[in-house]
Every structure is written in C-alpha cells, then in structure tokens.
Amino acid sequence: MINIKNLSKYYNKSRGIENINLDVCEGDIFGFIGPNGAGKSTTIRILLNLIFPTSGTASIMGMDVIKDSKKIKYHIGYIPSDANLYDKMDVQEFLKYCANFYKVKNGDQRIAELTEWLELDIKRKMAELSMGNKKKVSIVQSLIHSPKLLILDEPTTGLDPLMQAKFFELLRAENNKGVTIFFSSHVLSEVQTFCKNVAIIKDGKIIKVENIETLRKKQLKKVTISFSEMPTENIGIRGIESIISNTGNMLSFMYSGDINDLTGYLSKKKIDNLVIEEPSLEEIFLHYYQ
Amino acid sequence: MNKNLFFKEIKRNAFSLIMWMIVISILIFFTMSFYRTFIKNQQQIIGMMGIMPSGILKFRGITNLSDLFSILGFYAANNTIYMMLLGSVYAIVLSANILLKEEYHKTAEFLLSKPITRGEVFITKWAILTMNIILLNLVADLVGLISIEVFKTGSYSIKSYLLLSFDTLLLNFLFGSIGLFISTLIKRPKPITTFSIGIVLILYFLFNISRITPSAEKFGYLSPFKYIDTNVLAPGYGIDIWHMFYFISGALVLTVLSYQIYRRKDIFT
Question: In chain B, how many domains are there?
C-alpha cells in the first residue's frame, strides 16, 4: 500500500528524515511511533506531497507521491495533527465543500451518519468549536469519500477518552472493510492496543519495524523501589532487563518478568515506596535499541 | 481550474470586494460632484494655483492648469488616484494573501490533501484574483463614467476615458502579479498585508518624487505608476504599445514564475 525507499528530507541543513525505508501492506493498521520532532510529520507530509523529498521515492498504491499525487488523493483520507479549519464556515458547509472534491454520490448521508456517530453539531461555526470538536470535523472529512488508506497524524489529541474509544471503534470498522490505516502517534499505549505493526522512528531514522504482538510479549514495566535498607545481596528475580539508576536506597530498573515474582520478593523486604509504571517511549527506545 | 474551490473562493472574497467597490464608487462620485463648483470659481482657483509652487501641481499630475477645467482633465487629476493607488492596493492585498492565507491559517493541509493539483489551486486562485480586479475596475469605471455624464458641462472624449481606464486595469494586474510572486517566496507563512501595501505606497511615492524633482526623474522608471499617461487632454494621447507591453509582459512573467515556484514549494503549516 505504502512503499518508501531511501527517503530523506533536509530543511536547509537541518535534518527532517534520513534514509527511511518502509513498507505498509494493504489491510494493515500500521503504527508510526516516535517522540516529537523525530520526523513523523515530515514523512507524512511527503506522502501527501505537501513537501518535496530531498532524495528517495515514495509511492502509494503503486503510484508516485509526487507525479500521481492527485490520483492518490482520491483514495486517501488524512487527519492532520493540528486541526485548523476554515473559521468562517459552519461545519456542514465545510464538510460539503470537502465532499465536493470527490464527487461522492451519497455525501450528505455519509456526513449525517458520521457526525451523528461522533455527536457533532453540524450547525456550529467552525470558529466556535473546541479543539476536540475540530478534531471530530477533521475525522469526518477524512472518511466522507470512503478512502482505501487513512493517514492519521496524532489523531487522538484533543479527544476525550470516551470519544477516543468511539474513534477507535470507527477505525476498526473501516479496517474490517479493508481500509489500510497509517497511524502516527507518540503515545505507545494506543499504538500497542490498536496497531498490528509498528515502526519506531527516532532522530529522523527508522530504528525498528516490529510486529506489535512481539512487542507486547516483551511487555516492560519500569519499577522504582525505595528500600528502607538497601539489600546487600543481588536481587535474584528473573526479568530484570536493565538497571536505570541505583543511587542511595533507590533502585530503578526495567522489568519484563512476572509481577508476582517481584511482589513476592519485596514482601520479604522493608521498603518505603514502590512505583510500577509504564515506561515512557523514550525509555523503551533506550532499553531496546541502545 | 477546480470549480469547487472557485465557487468557495468567490464567496470567501465577495465581502471585501463589495466593500472596496462601495468605498471607491463613493469616493469617485463624491469628488466628481465638486466639478461644477470648481469651474464656477475658475478665476479664483487660477489665482490661487498661481501662487502655489509648481511642484504641488506636478505632484497631482497637473501639467497644464487649464486641463483641470475640462471634465476629463478634472477626472484624471482627481480620480485616477483612487483606482491607480487604491485599486493597486486592493490587487496586491488580495493576491499576496489568496494563496498564502491557506498556509498561515493552516488550512493548506486540508486543501492539498484533497484531489487537486498545486497547478489547479494556483490557476483557480489566479482566476479569482483576475476576475475580482476586473470587477472592481468595471464598477469604478462605470461609476466614473456615470459621474462624468451627470456633472459634465461640455463634451469629452470617451475614447480617452476608456484608454485611461484600461491602463489603470493593467497597472492593477501588474500589482496583482507582484503580490502573488512575493507570497510564493515566503517560506515561513505569515500575513504580508502591511508589507505588500508598503510596496505599492513606496512605488507610488517614488513615482511622485520623480515628478517633482528633476534629479530623481530616472528613479521614476522603477515605478509602474510612471508608465501610466494621465495627460488625457494632450493632443497625442493614445495607445502606447510599449507601456502596454511593459504591463502585460511584467504581469505575465511574474505570474508564470509564481506558478512554477508554487508547484514546487514546500508547504508548511
């Protein structure tokens, strides 16, 4: 569906992305994850021909993203990360305007269905909409023409958890119809639960492309323990992947083992505090790929 | 050309076009309504103008005082300023923003994710620009003509009137293409309204300074205003092929360049 070959983009001399290679298969839900400034939006903007690559090529459905940009766009829906819309239009007018670009047959009906599902008031002026509601408008316009590929750039920002759930439900339904989803995010948990495959991007380079199941099997926790008295012996539990810090009575490490082993061990020790948390994306990067 | 975008753009730009039409029409008609009073007091005015420095008259584009007492001369001295200056301001403000506003309002991401090529976006917006400039000129010229007909006391050459109007339209087109060109060069999108108005004003003052200071006359040729002949009553007043060529080729070259740049431009929002 998407093929990216040796794609690089430099802004003057500063790096956007470097030598990216990526293949996304039809029907996939492909997560594209990395910290801010890693090059996610740059890659997406090249796919949409908003910006031109310095070198390399990219194609969608076998068509070149520069030469065949218009043809490609009949088949893709895009949700930008920063939902800015035409302030002076109302929601209905904007959505009709979007639909008219595609010559969709039952555009009005599709708009009605989608806006109802997302609880969006189409009579409102765009300028009056909250960030979350703007995002909903953005979601609807990306789906009006029943695209074959959805390109989503951090689509959940601004949506409340309830609406996020509805949104994912909507995306899953689209995916069941055969729609390929390219999902960029910096939130690991949503990529973990939603995507089938994931590419991790950092400093403009793809570090790893992995199946999400494989990633999930390596489920990592970040554990921080404040001991009342630091044990002198080695902590003999399997699953301690790497020590993050070890200062004073405080020990912090990545843990991939059984949580019961850990609590079992700690029950015999005197501790002041225990924190078990999801590691940040950055920490996962550091852990796996350093 | 994309119909959907075209009709949306008409709507988006209608209000400002209508406002400009109303303001310029009122200015023209209001100024022309003074013509009768003006010629009634011909003697005093000649006396008064006699003690003015000639520079002031030249600044207003008056080379021959008696020209002012003919309706067309009066119109040219007073009113072309509206369409030459204000019309050009309208043209450059519209053109400088018509493409760029999609970028600084961050709506370009939506527009360009739709099935429309850069070329189509450019041509559609250019068509709106051209159409609006023509409409503003048509209305202004019509109001000018009506006010001449209403307040005239003798005959005048309609041919000279139309020629002057046509020259002004070409001037507006040239400023329209300058605005487009500048906007395609902007890398980090922000509104450039003030900057573009500044360009028109600077070129206008450059032209005026060249008219009153002989030593600065050469610099006047840097300003497009210099190529408009407002001497409507001069015996040889007619079509100047070279001036027309200057306007048309200038506008054409800048528009084609802008088109090429826009097609290859990185759009940041």
Answer: 1
- Name the one residue in this structure whose structure tokens are 């005026």: B208
Cβ-nearest to A82 among B12, B106, B120: B106
Chain A: residues touching B (Cβ < 8 Å): 45, 48-52, 69-71, 73-74, 76, 78, 80, 82, 84-88, 97-98, 100-102, 141
Q: Is residue B269, in this structure, part of any structural domain at all? A: no
Identify whether the C-beta of residue A4 lies closer than 8 Å to the C-beta of residue A56.
yes
- Which one, of B40, B92, B38, B36, lies nearest residue B62 by Cα? B38
How many alpha carbons fall within 13 Å on the CB side of residue B233? 19
Q: What's the domain range around B207? A: 3-263
d(CA A248, CA A244): 13
* pLDDT digit string (tens) for chain B, length 269 residues: 899 999 999 999 999 999 999 999 999 999 999 888 888 887 787 777 777 776 666 666 666 677 778 889 889 887 778 888 999 999 999 999 999 999 888 889 899 999 999 999 999 999 999 999 999 999 999 999 999 999 988 888 899 999 999 999 999 999 999 999 999 998 888 888 999 999 999 999 888 888 888 787 888 888 898 888 877 877 778 888 898 999 999 999 999 999 999 999 998 76
* Interatomic CA distance for residues B30 and B147, integer angstroms: 9
Residues 6+ apart with CB under 8 A from A57: A4, A5, A6, A7, A64, A65
The size of the A-B interface in CB pairs under 8 A is 62
- Report the candidate in B191, B147, B139 with the shortest Cα–Cα distance to residue B165: B139
Q: How far apart are CA A79 and CA A139, in angstroms?
A: 6
Question: What tokens were used for B173?
Answer: 């087109």
Q: Do the domain assignments include residue B15?
A: yes
Q: Find residue A90's DSSP bridge partners.
A: A125
Tokens representing B223?
């300003």
